[in-house]
Amino acid sequence: MELRTPITELLDIRYPIVLAPMGGVSGGALAQAVTAAGGLGLIATGYGDAEWIEHEFDAAGNARVGTGFITWNLARKPELLDLVLAREPAAVMLSFGDPAPFAAKIKGAGAKLICQVQTVRQAREAAQCGADIVVAQGAEAGGHGASRGSFALIPAVADAVRPIPVLAAGGIADGRGLAAALMLGAAGVLVGTRFYATPEALGLDAAKERITQATGDETARTTVFDLVRGHDWPNVYTGRAVRNDFLERWHGHEDELAENIERERERYKRAVREGDAAATVVFAGEAVDLIHELEPAGQIVERIVREALERLAQKPS
Asked: Other C-beta atoms within 10 Å of 43: how many?
């Protein structure tokens, strides 16, 4: 199989599929598996733990991988960028904040700069900063994001930043999603939730199982998990997660949660230790409807490409 686009040429990969750097999920083993299958794996370096980052790069072995930062948090720990660049990543992705302070250093180190955006204005700002690739992330995506839907955002971003290639993100879990993204003007896809449900992914087994059983109707955008974990995200961003007991109890009652935060934080930490997916966050996108079992990451990459090529070869009825 062959599916060449400006993304495959720019990143020197076989298929235009990039692993989303999901915090606590996209470690070295998963990144290595996606790269080995012909895509590009990104290790999540989001909240910034130097020891964890080193360990996961070691776990990726000699695989050609990249990394992804939460930009507003990187601004607090800029030394982590030096740590990552010393590993000679293929690409560095910046999300949720101004990429300008870091763009020159990333590109100067020889890594491709990927900027994830949620609005057309952010896309234009990323282009001005020298982004090599722009990710248009729709609100269907799991984890943190904003409010615009993918179907309209992707072509608008592609038009705004042309000729910079665009990756589509949000609600993509099979070959239909890749084919649709290409038709909308993207040159590839950034895939998260589908790769969460893999043996190579980090995270709770109970969380992976929950993803295979959930429907998109059961997901919601919320801030309660950030509150209980002590992550002070900018107000514009919420996290899409599968509904569970904790979300149902506290969503819409954030002020009450804040008043009881120490007690609830201890309960939350205990639930994490016990692997209780009913009480801890399972970030996942609306595409969970399309995920029914755990599969190796390499199998997923091959199937998405095969399905996309089949769809692209079909004539409309």
From this structure: 27
